Structure formats: structure tokens, C-alpha cells
Q: What sequence folds into this?
């Protein structure tokens, strides 16, 4: 199985909005509403930010939102803050009953 | 509050078997409708899904690792285990255990991770 495609890096200024894409195929992202997103700070375990495409766990800021169109899922962060800087990963369920991560995106807050 | 803690040797020799344990506290590993899994991250690289196990014992593995991986549950100790055989330097990584609710994609609880280095 091939890793989902994410941009290597994105950046934005405080207060702006950014979107990170996660592109797969009809056998993973496009075929199921089982996409989740994780934020990871250096030396820390990943933290769940969005699950099942667009659901936010309790305690996660409503500045984080998720969506999906065809084979591409997206994570949008609005009102960018310095603490949002870090690495972001998507993961999707696949038709083989397995899971595949995206390559990760480094978010820089300018 | 559920907590997960990985443990095991930090150094493994090439061609040997990597063995890790994830101890779960604050909840039962045999509770229905949860998957328990392993994810790894080579230094400076991205996350890779290794596999998971349902509370009933059904297992699912990454096709690229399937021939070398075994994941199991020890309900008496409330532990999840990972065995990866015939390791090489490419298996050097931080290994995380995590929990996922069935019928959901979210890995909602993670261990802190443990670094395993493969070297002679």
C-alpha cells in the first residue's frame, strides 16, 4: 500500500487560515469516511485532532476542521496560532482492512 | 484516565526479534469494541502503521511487515505486545502503542513511545 500524499510543508501567519491536503485513492480516502488527523510536536506522541473526516474530539479547538472531496481529505486550521506549529499526519482505512498514513506535513507559523 | 506505556529493550541486534510490551492502565484491554495497535516512526521520518488487534483477538497487519510481525493481547496482565522478527537497521524507530474505538478512525489514546535501535 502506498502512503497518502500530503504537502511536505505549509506556512501561514498568525490569524490566517491554512489547509493541509491528504490525497489517496478510491480504495482508501475516497472509499470510506474513516480519515483522521494528528498533530505532533517534537519529541511527543501524536495527538488526535479530527476523526471520521470531520469530527472533533472533546477538548480540541474548533479552529480545527476536516472535510473530504472524492479522494482528497483536508484539514483546515483557522485563526492560526504559534502553538499550532508542528507536524500533521492523516491516516485512512483501506479496502484491505488495513490503515495507511500520509507522509506528514510540517506547519510553520511565520 | 486511560494510560498506555511502552516498554522493552532499547537496542536489538540485526536479524534478532524485537519484542515490546504496552501496559494499559485505567481501563481493560479486553473491553469490547476497541482495537489496540502499534505505530512506528523512524528518526526524522513519518508515521507508519504496523498493525492492530481487536479485543476479540483478530489481527490486521501492514502488508509490508506482515511476514515478520505478531501482535497479541495478554488480558491477565492488561498488556499488548509486538514482536518483529529478522530486524534490520531500517526497523530503528520510535514505537508507539495506541487505542482506537471500533467503527471510528480516531486513535484517541497513545503511549509516549519507545525508541528501539537496531545495531550490532
A:
Amino acid at each position: 500500500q502506498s502512503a497518502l500524499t500530503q504537502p511536505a510543508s505549509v506556512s501561514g501567519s498568525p490569524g490566517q487560515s491554512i489547509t493541509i491536503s491528504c490525497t489517496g485513492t478510491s480504495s482508501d480516502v475516497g472509499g470510506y469516511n474513516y480519515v483522521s488527523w494528528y498533530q505532533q510536536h517534537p519529541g511527543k506522541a501524536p495527538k488526535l485532532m479530527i476523526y471520521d473526516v470531520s469530527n472533533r474530539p472533546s477538548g480540541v479547538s474548533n479552529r480545527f476542521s476536516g472535510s473530504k472531496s472524492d479522494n482528497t481529505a483536508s484539514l483546515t486550521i483557522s485563526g492560526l496560532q504559534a502553538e499550532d506549529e508542528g507536524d500533521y499526519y492523516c491516516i485512512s482505512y483501506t479496502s484491505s482492512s488495513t490503515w495507511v498514513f500520509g507522509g506528514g506535513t510540517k506547519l510553520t507559523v511565520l | 484516565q486511560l494510560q498506555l506505556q511502552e516498554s522493552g529493550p532499547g537496542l536489538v541486534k540485526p536479524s534478532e526479534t524485537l519484542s515490546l510490551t504496552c501496559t494499559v492502565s485505567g481501563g481493560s484491554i479486553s473491553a469490547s469494541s476497541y482495537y489496540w495497535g502499534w505505530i512506528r516512526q523512524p528518526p526524522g521520518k513519518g508515521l507508519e502503521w504496523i498493525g492492530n488487534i481487536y479485543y476479540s483477538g483478530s489481527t490486521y497487519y501492514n502488508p509490508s511487515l506482515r511476514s515478520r510481525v505478531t501482535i497479541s493481547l495478554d488480558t491477565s496482565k492488561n498488556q499488548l505486545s509486538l514482536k518483529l522478527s529478522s530486524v534490520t537497521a531500517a526497523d530503528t524507530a520510535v514505537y508507539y502503542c495506541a487505542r482506537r474505538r471500533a467503527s471510528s478512525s480516531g486513535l484517541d489514546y497513545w503511549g509516549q513511545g519507545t525508541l528501539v535501535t537496531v545495531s550490532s
Q: What stands out?
A: The first strand of chain B starts at residue 3 and ends at 7. The two ends of chain B are 39 Å apart (CA to CA). DSSP finds no helices and eleven strands in chain B.
